[in-house]
Amino acid sequence: MSDPVVKVGDSLKDRARATLGSRNLILVGLMGAGKSSVGRIVAHQLGIPFIDSDGEIERVSRMTISELFAAYGEDEFRALETRVMKRLLKNGPRVVSTGGGAFINDRTRKHIKKSGLSVWLKADLDVLWERVSKRDTRPLLKTENPRQTLENLMNARYPIYAEADITVLSRDVRKEVMADEVLKAVIEAQTESTLS
Ligand SMILES: Nc1ncnc2c1ncn2[C@@H]1O[C@H](COP(=O)(O)OP(=O)(O)O)[C@@H](O)[C@H]1O
Ligand SMILES: O=C(O)C1=C[C@@H](OP(=O)(O)O)[C@@H](O)[C@H](O)C1
Ligand SMILES: [Mg+2]
Known about the structure:
- The protein has helices spanning 12-20, 35-46, 53-61, 65-88, 106-115, 125-132, 146-161, 175-195; strands at 24-28, 50-52, 95-97, 116-122, 166-169.
- By secondary structure, the protein is of the alpha/beta class.
- The longest helix is centred in the middle third of the chain and has 24 residues, at 65-88.
- Bound molecules: adenosine-5'-diphosphate, shikimate-3-phosphate and magnesium ion (MG).
- Its EC number is 2.7.1.71.
């Protein structure tokens, strides 16, 4: 691949866009990290299409994520998620926000790694819980102690999310600030890989 043309004085979004080239930018991380809402802003900044994998799954199945889990179970949902992700990742550049379990699935993770730059939005339990407890759209959290369930998922999944190309700390700041941090991290990751 040829080097992106980045000129001194280009804005953050121009530089991030040039760095990305035709690769996808894929946001991964636990429920509540901000993948869907921050991903949308990042795509707008970069001027490339945005797709939320859960939204696409709901569109093609004409069912909500909760309905899919209830009707077919998690294994079937994962199989559908893998198929949808493989298709979504074919035509870069796009910003693709994944559902929290997508990167944990071996096959889906391989597709993600091959098709672009993965960004882990990493948040602590208090931030995640504060956000997800406001809505009941997440079937995996319909348990007796959902906060504990979230913590268990965190312990199980964080070593796998750590395989992402880039990690950005998802904090209690405005979504626009988070989006800027993602753009900066994309540029920094490229600079580091060029220097090493
Ligand atoms: N930086 C942020 N500051 C405040 N609220 C946020 C932030 N990021 C996300 N949220 C809110 O948290 C909830 C979960 O965000 P969402 O983007 O759906 O996360 P994910 O897709 O990772 O599960 C939403 O209600 C969203 O508006
Ligand atoms: O973590 C998970 O396994 C899931 C996360 C959800 O997406 P968000 O991470 O966008 O909430 C959604 O895909 C489904 O409820 C399963
Ligand atoms: Mg989401």
